[in-house]
Protein backbone atom coordinates (compact mmCIF):
# COMPACT_ATOMS: atom_id res chain seq x y z
CA UNK A 1 0.00 0.00 0.00
CA UNK A 2 1.00 3.61 -0.50
CA UNK A 3 2.37 5.55 2.41
CA UNK A 4 0.14 8.29 3.74
CA UNK A 5 0.82 11.72 2.34
CA UNK A 6 0.76 11.04 -1.41
CA UNK A 7 -1.43 13.94 -2.52
CA UNK A 8 -2.13 16.26 -5.41
CA UNK A 9 0.24 19.20 -5.69
CA UNK A 10 3.41 17.37 -4.71
CA UNK A 11 6.25 18.74 -6.83
CA UNK A 12 9.80 17.86 -7.71
CA UNK A 13 12.68 19.31 -9.68
CA UNK A 14 15.60 17.96 -11.66
CA UNK A 15 18.48 19.95 -13.11
CA UNK A 16 21.49 19.35 -15.29
CA UNK A 17 24.05 21.10 -17.45
CA UNK A 18 23.71 20.14 -21.10
CA UNK A 19 26.76 18.23 -22.33
CA UNK A 20 27.56 16.76 -25.72
CA UNK A 21 26.21 13.43 -24.39
CA UNK A 22 22.66 14.87 -24.26
CA UNK A 23 22.61 16.31 -27.78
CA UNK A 24 20.39 15.02 -30.55
CA UNK A 25 23.43 14.35 -32.72
CA UNK A 26 25.09 12.20 -30.04
CA UNK A 27 21.92 10.24 -29.17
CA UNK A 28 20.89 9.73 -32.78
CA UNK A 29 17.55 11.48 -32.41
CA UNK A 30 18.56 14.19 -34.86
CA UNK A 31 21.54 15.86 -36.47
CA UNK A 32 21.90 19.00 -34.36
CA UNK A 33 24.23 19.70 -31.44
CA UNK A 34 21.38 20.87 -29.20
CA UNK A 35 19.68 19.35 -26.14
CA UNK A 36 17.78 16.31 -27.37
CA UNK A 37 14.12 15.52 -26.83
CA UNK A 38 15.00 12.13 -25.24
CA UNK A 39 17.19 13.99 -22.72
CA UNK A 40 14.41 16.49 -22.04
CA UNK A 41 11.94 13.66 -21.39
CA UNK A 42 14.43 11.95 -19.08
CA UNK A 43 14.88 15.15 -17.07
CA UNK A 44 11.10 15.52 -16.78
CA UNK A 45 10.80 11.90 -15.62
CA UNK A 46 13.51 12.54 -13.00
CA UNK A 47 11.53 15.54 -11.73
CA UNK A 48 8.42 13.35 -11.45
CA UNK A 49 10.34 10.74 -9.45
CA UNK A 50 11.66 13.50 -7.18
CA UNK A 51 8.11 14.74 -6.55
CA UNK A 52 7.08 11.47 -4.89
CA UNK A 53 10.41 10.45 -3.39
CA UNK A 54 9.82 9.10 0.09
CA UNK A 55 6.11 8.45 -0.44
CA UNK A 56 6.34 4.84 -1.63
CA UNK A 57 6.12 1.95 0.81
CA UNK A 58 9.01 -0.48 1.13
CA UNK A 59 9.03 -2.77 -1.88
CA UNK A 60 7.33 -0.23 -4.14
CA UNK A 61 8.56 2.18 -6.77
CA UNK A 62 7.13 3.82 -9.88
CA UNK A 63 7.79 3.29 -13.57
CA UNK A 64 7.02 5.65 -16.40
CA UNK A 65 4.28 4.41 -18.74
CA UNK A 66 3.22 7.44 -20.77
CA UNK A 67 4.80 10.68 -21.97
CA UNK A 68 3.27 13.48 -24.02
CA UNK A 69 5.78 16.32 -24.34
CA UNK A 70 6.30 19.32 -26.59
CA UNK A 71 9.94 20.39 -27.05
CA UNK A 72 9.51 24.15 -27.52
CA UNK A 73 13.00 25.61 -27.96
CA UNK A 74 16.61 24.53 -28.54
CA UNK A 75 19.23 24.61 -25.79
CA UNK A 76 22.99 24.69 -26.49
CA UNK A 77 25.70 22.62 -24.84
CA UNK A 78 26.87 24.23 -21.59
CA UNK A 79 23.54 25.73 -20.56
CA UNK A 80 21.71 24.75 -17.35
CA UNK A 81 18.26 23.15 -17.72
CA UNK A 82 15.64 22.55 -15.03
CA UNK A 83 12.45 20.50 -15.05
CA UNK A 84 9.51 20.79 -12.68
CA UNK A 85 6.86 18.10 -12.19
CA UNK A 86 3.60 18.57 -10.28
CA UNK A 87 1.37 15.64 -9.31
CA UNK A 88 -2.01 16.49 -10.83
CA UNK A 89 -3.84 13.18 -10.75
CA UNK A 90 -4.04 9.98 -8.71
CA UNK A 91 -6.19 7.15 -10.02
CA UNK A 92 -5.54 3.81 -8.35
CA UNK A 93 -1.85 3.12 -8.93
CA UNK A 94 -1.56 5.68 -11.77
CA UNK A 95 0.05 9.04 -11.06
CA UNK A 96 -0.26 11.85 -13.62
CA UNK A 97 2.19 14.76 -13.63
CA UNK A 98 2.23 18.11 -15.37
CA UNK A 99 5.84 18.67 -16.47
CA UNK A 100 7.67 21.77 -17.66
CA UNK A 101 11.31 22.60 -18.36
CA UNK A 102 13.38 25.74 -18.77
CA UNK A 103 16.89 26.62 -19.78
CA UNK A 104 18.62 29.82 -18.65
CA UNK A 105 16.70 31.86 -21.20
CA UNK A 106 13.20 30.42 -21.71
CA UNK A 107 10.72 27.60 -21.29
CA UNK A 108 11.90 24.70 -23.45
CA UNK A 109 9.31 22.00 -22.81
CA UNK A 110 5.89 21.16 -21.44
CA UNK A 111 3.62 18.17 -21.22
CA UNK A 112 2.17 15.31 -19.22
CA UNK A 113 3.81 12.23 -17.76
CA UNK A 114 2.16 9.17 -16.19
CA UNK A 115 3.87 6.81 -13.77
CA UNK A 116 2.50 3.60 -12.25
CA UNK A 117 3.19 2.38 -8.73
CA UNK A 118 4.60 -1.15 -8.91
CA UNK A 119 5.57 -3.91 -6.52
CA UNK A 120 9.33 -4.32 -7.01
CA UNK A 121 9.55 -8.09 -6.26
CA UNK A 122 6.67 -8.88 -8.66
CA UNK A 123 8.12 -6.63 -11.37
CA UNK A 124 11.56 -8.20 -10.93
CA UNK A 125 10.12 -11.71 -11.24
CA UNK A 126 8.32 -10.84 -14.47
CA UNK A 127 11.44 -9.19 -15.87
CA UNK A 128 13.59 -12.18 -14.95
CA UNK A 129 11.11 -14.56 -16.62
CA UNK A 130 11.34 -12.53 -19.81
CA UNK A 131 15.13 -12.34 -19.61
CA UNK A 132 15.33 -16.10 -19.07
CA UNK A 133 13.40 -16.69 -22.29
CA UNK A 134 16.04 -14.72 -24.20
CA UNK A 135 19.02 -16.34 -22.48
CA UNK A 136 17.66 -19.85 -23.01
CA UNK A 137 17.51 -19.54 -26.81
CA UNK A 138 20.09 -21.60 -28.70
CA UNK A 139 21.39 -18.57 -30.61
CA UNK A 140 20.04 -15.78 -28.40
CA UNK A 141 19.02 -12.81 -30.50
CA UNK A 142 15.60 -11.47 -31.28
CA UNK A 143 13.68 -14.63 -32.13
CA UNK A 144 10.07 -13.74 -32.65
CA UNK A 145 10.84 -10.06 -33.17
CA UNK A 146 10.21 -10.34 -36.91
CA UNK A 147 6.69 -11.59 -36.15
CA UNK A 148 6.06 -8.63 -33.85
CA UNK A 149 7.45 -6.28 -36.48
CA UNK A 150 5.08 -7.74 -39.12
CA UNK A 151 2.10 -7.00 -36.85
CA UNK A 152 3.10 -3.36 -36.59
CATH fold-level topology: Thiol Ester Dehydrase, Chain A
Flag low-confidence runs. Answer: none
**Strand arrangement in the largest pleated sheet:** 1-3-4-5-2
Largest sheet: 5 strands, antiparallel
Q: Identify the quaternary structure here.
A: single chain
Structural domain tally:
1
Structural class: alpha+beta
The residue-averaged pLDDT reads 91
Distance linking N and C termini: 37 Å
Count of helix runs: 4
Please tell me the CATH architecture by its name. Answer: Roll
Question: What share of the residues lie within helices?
Answer: 25-40%
Find the count of extended strands (DSSP E, 2+ residues).
Answer: 5
CATH superfamily: Hotdog Thioesterase
Broad CATH class: Alpha Beta
Provide the gyration radius in Å.
18 Å
Proportion of residues in β-strands: 35-45%
Which helices and strands, and how do they pair?
Blueprint: E1 11-17, H1 24-27, H2 37-52, E2 60-71, E3 80-91, E4 94-103, E5 107-119, H3 120-135, H4 145-151
Antiparallel strand pairs: 1-3, 2-5, 3-4, 4-5
Q: Could you explain the architecture of this structure?
A:
With 152 residues, the protein is of the alpha+beta class. It has a single domain (11-119), classed as Hotdog Thioesterase (Thiol Ester Dehydrase, Chain A, Roll), CATH 3.10.129. Helices cover 28% and strands 36% of the residues. It has four helices and five strands. It has helices at 24-27, 37-52, 120-135, 145-151, and strands at 11-17, 60-71, 80-91, 94-103, 107-119. The chain has a five-stranded antiparallel beta sheet with strand order 1-3-4-5-2. Strand 3 (80-91) and strand 4 form a beta hairpin. The longest helix has 16 residues, at 37-52. The chain is flat, with a radius of gyration of 18 Å. It starts with 10 loop residues before the first strand and ends with a helix. The model has no long low-confidence stretch (mean pLDDT 91).
Amino acid sequence: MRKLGLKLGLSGEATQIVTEQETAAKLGSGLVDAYSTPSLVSLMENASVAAIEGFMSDGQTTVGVEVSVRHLAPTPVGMHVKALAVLEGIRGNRLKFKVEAWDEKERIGEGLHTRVIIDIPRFSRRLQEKASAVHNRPNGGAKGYSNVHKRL
